[in-house]
Structure formats: C-alpha cells, structure tokens
C-alpha cells in the first residue's frame, strides 16, 4: 500500500512529504485507519532535541484521528467505518496496564519513543524500500494512513468532526487528565497553570468545567488573553512577587499547580504559591537539573511527574467530547488546521507561539 506521509530524515532537517509503503493487511489486534487529521504536539518536535535517541528516518505524529478501513482478527472491538481517536501505545499486560495506569506501562518508552514494536519495523518503508522507524506512539499519523494496535483507538460518534478530535488523544488529554485524575480538582478549589499552551489551556478548561478557579501564567499576552476567555485569571510570568499574588488570589495558596514550561524559576515560584500539602505536577520534560529553593517542599508540599494525565484514554476521551458538546470544554478554539503538505509551516508557527494546536489534514 502506497500513500503520502511526512518523513523526518534528520534531527535538524525539515519534514519531507513523501510516498511511503505499508503492508496493508493488519495483524491480529491491529486496525488500519485512514487519517482525517493529526495534531502536532511538542513531543513530536522534541525529537529534534533528543538526537540519537528516537530513531530516524521516521514518520512522527501521535494525535491522529480518522476512520477504520480494515481490521485484523476478530477481537479488535472495532469495525470498518468506525470513527476513532488514536492515543498512546501500551503493552496491556504489565502491572501498570492491568491497574488502569497505561501511561506508566513498563514498555512505554520502548513502544512510544525509542523503537516501537520491532517485529513490525520492516513493514514500513519509503518508496525506495528504505526502512522507516517503527510506529511513533503506535501511530506515525503524520500520514494518510496509520496501522495501529486496536487498544490505541477509541471509537467516537461518526457525526462529530473527526478531523479535529486527534489532540484529545494526547495534549488535551494530558492537561485535562491532570486536573480530573492526578489532582482530583473539585468545585471551589484552585489550580495554578504554568504555561498557556495546548496542555495548559486544556487544564484551564478542565478546571473551569470542574467548578474550580484557574490561574494561568504565561509570557505571551495573546495566550493570557485566551486563558481569560476560557475562564482563568491570567498573570504575566514576570509579575512582581508572583507567589504572593497567587496566594492572595487563592485565599492563602493553591492546592494544585501544573507546570508545562520546565522553567526552574517558575517551578520554584509555583511551589511557594502552594498551600501546605499542595501538589505540583510536572508534564514538561526537564532537560537540566532542577534546583529547589530551601524549604520548597516543607509542610507536606510535593512534586510528581504526570504522564498522559494519568488517563485511561477510552474513558477520558468520551468524557471530554461530552463536555465539549455541552460547551464546557471548547478545545476547538485552540486549533488551526494546515494541509499535511504545510507541516513545516505548522512547526514554525508552533515554535513561534502563533498557534496553540496545529492540526494537519492529509
């Protein structure tokens, strides 16, 4: 099977839309999906910073959505014509997977970031027969088609605009899941969100939907304005004595904070803005050591890393769609669509902060 895909051949090279080849017969437990849209996530772009770890050449993309065109085996739970949102891969067998924590799968890094299912590697090649890296996050959905494990695919109502739903599988899932699952934020509580990008604004929307107060911190005025429109109190990142300002807004300190920036300064300021026993969640990957101020974790304050919003995609994605349909999670306001052929323009706009969530349409 031949189709178009955006191939990254070097860590410092642009994407190239090329013809690729894929064995079109799904194995047991797999489905072939015609991609209708795929969100561009910071994790896709972070491959450039992790040179040598994620194998290239590769087709990236892990916020895909589309229509099932073929199924493998009788037990996929999906049928041809089903509309699906694709999410991350997991083994389905380890203790974490069996405990409804697939984001902490023992094989998460191998399956999603650093090699995928190696037995399938030779099935995905470029037009000249050169091998492409195994499926990125079980998908490689910067493409017209993707072969995915059926457990990565969440069936959705076919009346929905499926091309826009892909970011619910990762970025929006992560921010909303942190609020709903990692923190269990409830009515009358408050949360500080550091960084008003796709993950941060998803957290803002989820907090508002939960009846909580969100304080959004960012350096971009247009992002702060959007956060306010979505229900947050917006503060510039350079606000004088930011922790004290947040403590005043939240009645003595917020119980929760979510960092999407990996900024050591903002992380320490968020810790000082927490009330005793407060919880700071980190979703951005740290690339340097994190020096904590003396006393940062006094009075029961704690830090944890949050992966994929501690979510079970098959449960949270339908919940987010229901909130969107009720007007309480307007994620579509964060999206700008681009033809797949314009993937490099989408990356530039994403890097420059001109767009919150690019969605590539094959």
From TrEMBL:
Presence of keyword Oxidoreductase: yes
Source species of the chain: Actinacidiphila yanglinensis
Annotated family: Belongs to the zinc-containing alcohol dehydrogenase family.
Protein name stated in the entry: Aryl-alcohol dehydrogenase
Domain Enoyl reductase (ER): 10-360
GO molecular function, a single term: oxidoreductase activity
The keyword Phosphoprotein appears for this protein: no
Keywords: Membrane, Metal-binding, Oxidoreductase, Transmembrane, Transmembrane helix, Zinc
């Amino acid at each position: 099977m031949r189709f178009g895909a955006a191939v990254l051949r070097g860590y410092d090279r642009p994407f190239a839309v090329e013809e690729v080849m894929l064995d079109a017969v799904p194995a047991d437990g797999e489905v072939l999906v015609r991609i209708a849209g795929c969100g561009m996530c910071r994790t896709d772009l972070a491959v450039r910073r992790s040179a040598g770890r994620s194998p290239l050449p590769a087709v990236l993309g892990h916020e895909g959505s589309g229509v099932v065109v073929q199924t493998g085996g009788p037990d996929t739970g999906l049928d041809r014509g089903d509309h699906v949102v694709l999410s991350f891969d997991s083994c389905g067998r380890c203790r974490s997977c069996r405990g409804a924590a697939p984001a902490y799968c023992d094989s998460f890094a191998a399956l999603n970031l650093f090699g995928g299912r190696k037995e399938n590697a030779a099935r995905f090649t470029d037009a000249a027969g050169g091998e492409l890296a195994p499926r990125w996050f079980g998908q490689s959905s910067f493409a017209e088609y993707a072969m995915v494990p059926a457990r990565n695919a969440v069936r959705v109502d076919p009346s929905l605009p499926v091309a826009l739903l892909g970011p619910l599988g990762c970025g929006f899932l992560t921010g909303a899941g942190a609020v709903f699952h990692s923190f269990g934020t409830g009515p009358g509580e408050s949360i500080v969100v550091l960084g008003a990008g796709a993950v941060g604004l998803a957290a803002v929307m989820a907090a508002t939907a939960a009846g909580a107060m969100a304080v959004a911190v960012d350096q971009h005025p247009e992002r702060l304005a959007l956060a306010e429109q979505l229900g947050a109190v917006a503060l510039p990142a350079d606000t004088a004595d930011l922790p004290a300002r947040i403590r005043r807004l939240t009645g003595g300190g917020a119980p929760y904070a979510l960092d999407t920036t990996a900024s050591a300064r903002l992380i320490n300021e968020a810790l000082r803005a927490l009330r005793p026993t407060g919880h700071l969640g980190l979703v951005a990957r740290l690339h340097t050591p994190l020096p904590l101020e003396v006393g940062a974790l006094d009075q029961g304050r704690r830090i944890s890393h949050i992966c994929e919003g501690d979510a079970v995609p098959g449960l949270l994605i339908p919940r987010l769609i229901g909130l969107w349909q009720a007007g309480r999670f307007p994620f579509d306001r964060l999206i700008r669509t681009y033809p797949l052929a314009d993937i490099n323009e989408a990356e530039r706009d994403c890097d420059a902060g001109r767009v919150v969530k690019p969605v590539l349409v094959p």
